[in-house]
Amino acid sequence: MTTIVPPSHDIHPLDVPGSDPFEIARQAAAQIAEKTGVERHDIALTLGSGWAKAADLIGETVATLPATEIIGFSKPALEGHVGTLRSIALPGGKHALVIGARTHYYEDHGVRRVVHSVRTAAATGAKTMILTNGAGGIRETWKPGQPVLISDHINLTADSPLEGATFIDLTDLYSARLRGVAQAVEPSLDEGVYVQFRGPHYETPAEVQMAKSIGGHIVGMSTTLEAIAAREAGMEVLGFSLVTNLAAGIQKTPLSHEEVIEAGRTAEPVISSLLARVVTEISQGG
Ligand code: 8IG
Question: Superfamily for 19-283?
């Protein structure tokens, strides 16, 4: 006879039947306020591949918490994705919450966990959500190490963070106002449409051609579901991609994770300083 052993770990709070993801986000926000001593945060940033150094440049770190100490957050799946939440005091007196703990859709933990950090950020008081990622570039003129402003997205996950008949307008999802602020800080910034594939495999060259023909300029594995949740929560969204590689078939050599990490490392000081200047501008009324 075989015995079926049930999993020994506790069920994740967001997976409990009948649980309310917004109530869990409020609890997470209360824990963050208690542990950081910062009552409210004004702006939140999710730092993806290549962007982590920005946290050191935007202000004075008040507290760093392992994300797993906060309800609803999951362990990071990947090395190089540091699982921390940081509270940073900005020069103008406001506070930023820096999320270094992204749960990806491809981890298969469900969309609630993917967007929990964004809902938590909103519950801490943040009105602005800055989402960053590393991505593949489709435009031939782009080079690895180039930052691109996200102007719009195409969500190919066929999924949504919205539950039930919740209809949310996404016309100006990536705020034209905030993009204007970013382009005032760095006039040479290019814009592009971000296409999210499920991953974790990279695309085939044919899939990259499809992304291009439907209007995409950047391909990645994150951000779109988070952006939708941020808009649902009433936040203004700004998105940046770091082109760490040209998408499959655009570049002639095979894609490697090492290449992605290396491009991120080289570009990091430049794009981090760009992001820090944008945060300063936004937080001081830009
Ligand atoms: I970094 O080329 C990074 N992330 N889907 N395609 C997809 N995701 C990525 C890529 C890429 N590069």
Answer: Nucleoside phosphorylase domain (3.40.50.1580)
